[in-house]
Amino acid sequence: MAGLHPARLFKNINAKIAAIPMVFTALVVFLGGTLWTVVYSFTNSKLLPRTTFVGFEQYERLWATSRWVVSIQNLLLYGVFSLVFTIGIGFLLAVLMDQKIRFEDAFRTVMLYPFALSFIVTGLVWQWILNPQFGIQHIVRGFGLEWFTFDPLNNPQTVMFGLLIAGLWQGTGFVMCLMLAGLRGIDEEIWKAARVDGIPRWKVYLFIIIPMMRPVFITTLVIVASGIIRLYDLVVAQTSGGPGNASQVPAMYVYDYMFQAQNLAQGFAASSMMLLSVLIVLIPWAYLEFGGKKRG
């Protein structure tokens, strides 16, 4: 075959052989499991998988269920605010940290520490903090401000913002570290040239630094977005989907139908829709990262 060089084929042959089990496992477990889930979402499987195909019946039932529609609306609301504030606050913190401040290592450790906690722990901690009986509302009223009210988790209109506070607290430090790594990769000569030309610092960040950090922003966007789509344990720990169904998310719907309602096909259909949302995030990222390089 033209262009096939045996020397290249057998280069690093030991590493390629060692990678075979990992590649095989990934293909069988991930790709095989994904295809199995999608195929059985078109069946009427209940407690056990069945091969009786019913077309798009499960998807029609899915989108006709108010709980699923509410969970999608909640995920969109949470996702938009989480993306904007996590990346925005993380970048601002990275800019402040990049000023060569004293005790930078200590501040960076403190900011990154919440990311080391599980979402279950984070959810329980913020459930206590936002509890009106002994949380923020109780503390503020202890200073004599009896009119103060802050109870977001028990209000269907504000419960997603209560979840958002906990999510931002945990994820912002990680985004800050990613942005800080990108800022530290900027050539110092750019700053020197900007100072010589008298360009305001905010213009340097807006028109020079941020465009140069495009790969960092895209990667951060994908990481944050994938975490948003998989949102589950934070909701379970803080609200269990309540009050009512006000804080339901797609992952809870999948879990409940697959393991509690014993309706595998409905859970598979919801999982397939979540997979579709992941692909909507990953495909543009892959195109921006690899398509542009090939054209270049």
How are the SSEs placed, and which strands pair?
Elements: H1 6-9, H2 13-40, H3 57-63, H4 66-97, H5 104-116, H6 119-129, H7 136-142, H8 159-184, H9 188-197, H10 201-212, H11 214-229, H12 233-238, H13 250-260, H14 264-295
Mean of pLDDT = 88
- Helical region count? 14
Task: Report the principal-axis shape.
Answer: flat
Q: Which architecture does the CATH hierarchy give at level 2?
A: Orthogonal Bundle
Order of helices and strands: HHHHHHHHHHHHHH
CATH fold field value: MetI-like fold
- Low-confidence residue ranges: none
Strand content: under 5%
Give the strand tally: 0
> Briefly, what CATH class?
Mainly Alpha
Plain-language structure description:
By secondary structure, this protein is an all-alpha fold. It has one domain (65-295): MetI-like (MetI-like fold), CATH 1.10.3720. It is built from 14 helices and no strands. It has helices at residues 6-9, 13-40, 57-63, 66-97, 104-116, 119-129, 136-142, 159-184, 188-197, 201-212, 214-229, 233-238, 250-260, 264-295. α4 (66-97) packs parallel to α8 (159-184), α11 (214-229) packs antiparallel against α14 (264-295) and α13 (250-260) crosses α14. The two termini are 27 Å apart.
